[in-house]
Amino acid sequence: VDRTAAIVRDVRSFSHAGDGAAERVDPDESIDRALRMAAHQLPASVRVLRGSRIEAAVEGVRRELEQVLLNLIVNAAQALDGEGTIRVGAALRGAEVVIAIADDGRGIPPDVIDRIFDPFFTTKPVGEGTGLGLSISHEIVRRHGGRIEVSSQPDRGTEFRVFLPVPSLP
Predict the structure, then answer these.
(1) What's the pLDDT at 68?
(2) pLDDT band at residue 14 using 50, 70 and 90 as cut-offs
(3) CA–CA dist 130, 124 (Å, integer)
(4) What pLDDT is recorded for position 107?
């Protein structure tokens, strides 16, 4: 019942995505907010290294972008199995802001990495995940004109990179 309720909440949240107003969003503020929201889910043995700040903005729905970052941070913490390091930072690359969230955890098995954005796909044990977090995050980023890339090595960690366009000046 709890798992079904979680799936319904995720689908409901996804179906209402896009209801917020787009605005200029400071990626650093969104990273900081997502890290604060995730803090209670991070064991004391998990270190978070925050990268340098950038001077750029993206256009988007703040709540949705922060949902993506929160999901990626929580997933990184879960991949650490209780201890390790999460690195979070943003960089300006040409006309894009790139937000990277990396962990030194167990990594994603090569035979499933191509499926991680599929709805309802999960590598978590039964009852621990809905398999919607990455799918919803992927769709949110796509709607914002961006993309998500992932690289992973078994037992060495995973890095997700969120690419978002920098709006041109009016």
Answers:
(1) 96
(2) very low
(3) 9
(4) 93
Helix, coil or strand: residue 170: coil
Q: What is the pTM of this model?
A: 0.85
Burial readout 61-73 (b: 16 or more C-beta within 10 A, e: otherwise): bbebbbbbbbbbb
In tens, the pLDDT along 22-32 reads 999 999 999 99
Q: Are 59 and 167 in contact (CB under 8 A)?
A: yes
* Long-range contacts of residues 107-116, Cβ cutoff 8 Å, at least 24 apart: 107/79, 107/152, 107/153, 107/154, 107/155, 107/156, 107/157, 107/158, 108/150, 108/152, 108/154, 108/158, 109/154, 110/152, 110/154, 113/150, 113/152, 116/150
Written as one string, the DSSP assignment of 94-157 is TTEEEEEEEE-SS---TTTGGGTTSTT---SPTTS--S-HHHHHHHHHHHTT-EEEEEEETTTE
DSSP helix/strand/coil, 81: coil
